[in-house]
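User: Fold this one for me? It's Probable alginate O-acetylase AlgI.
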Amino acid sequence: MLFNSYGFIFLFLPVVLLGFFWLARFSDAYAAAWLAAASLFFYGYWNPAYVGLLLASIICNYTFGMWIARAHGKTAARKGKQLLVAAISANLLLLAYYKYANFFLHNIDAAAGLHLSLGEIILPLGISFFTFTQIAFLVDTWQGKVKEYSFIHYLLFVTYFPHLIAGPILHHAEMMPQFALRTNYRVNWENTASGMLLFTVGLCKKTLWADSFAPFANAIFGGVQRGGVPTVYEAWCGALAYTMQIYFDFSGYTDMALGTALMFNIRLPINFDSPYKATSIIEFWRTWHMTLSRFLRDYLYIPLGGNRKGEPRRYANLMATMLLGGLWHGAGWTFVCWGGLHGIYLTVNHLWRELLPERPVKWLPVWMGGLAGGAITFVAVVVAWVMFRSFDMTHALIMMKAMVGIEARPISFADVMHGQLLMITDLRGRELAILLVSALAWVWLLPNSTRVKFINGNFVLMLAQAIATVYFLYLAIDQFGSYSPFLYFQF
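Assistant: Here's what I get for Probable alginate O-acetylase AlgI.
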């Protein structure tokens, strides 16, 4: 079930909300169980067959968590660590089978000609997210950070439908206390209004922005995949269109997830903080997909040694973390290289800060340095998105070469004057230019959407904001004739 669908907005969400708060009048446990059951229905609406897989994963991880939690003393602690390793291995094997098995077999086949195949494997929605969420739970249990073990709350923690399909990636400690809090089972109209406002902002990002950029990005990248060679102009148009599409698509989903959760008085962790405003790659990764960055830091980079074993080891750990982070996004060399490219960016950024701890040109205003850093960071991110979006490495290189004028198809002055994209028959560059200027103004000038709250206390302002919310909700819903799944569903 999609957030951007009639069924979710007009049927599923109202029924689940009403049922949750009505059952909470009798028992918090009933309300929590209702929300968990609704979340399983939400997941099974796509493919009921994978509800069993999700439940099996939850039961197995919960059981392992209980065994690990009971391990006390020196001997038991050793056993607990063995259980932790076994549980994490089982999770990674499940993820490897569904997401990476055919990728690895294809590469083995290409190298050795063995013709190995497991047939078509359908990737369960959200498997990367619910797997990482539960690995974090297991590690936190082993470290003694988990204090509550209610199965209903654990089931809800993993399946909670606002985050289940595409995140954010949750920590057990930040969710379980909220599920146990009595006041969260009572209607909070301010949270409901703020949640609806945030949901509407996210829906507008998806339907009015992301889906508007999609035809341009698909046309350019699709044209390259079909054997076309873009001009410099077209290559940058495609790259920028996808840069805007993935931002508004994923941040839009996250806003809708946070807004929906807030209607139930649950606060999910913020996943975006205006990442395209970043003035360095380090800052970009602190503000883009923040819960994934946190997971990779806490459960991969630091266990590898972090920065505690010397500079060479630090950068090796950083590169390994980013390569695996790229692979997490998808089973393809383009994703691995995207992660590697960001690993190189981060290494250069850290080295720059170490070699030049102070501003090299002190007489320049600070804002000029920030502007230059922001421009370099944004261009670097755009180039990396080309790798991320391309069908394979060959097509990625064609796009990148065209962006710097190498082996690019020439473009005539008349084509530029008419704003015509040569690889598109029914879309014009002028339309994309207007979209880009408007979208970049939104991204660079407006505050992060999570800072938008429903006004409380002034009736006139409250009424005006409510009317605006309904109006923009109508505008977004009016685009549902051509709605599409979210990009991160495939990861």
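One thing worth pointing out: Residues 192-490 form one domain.
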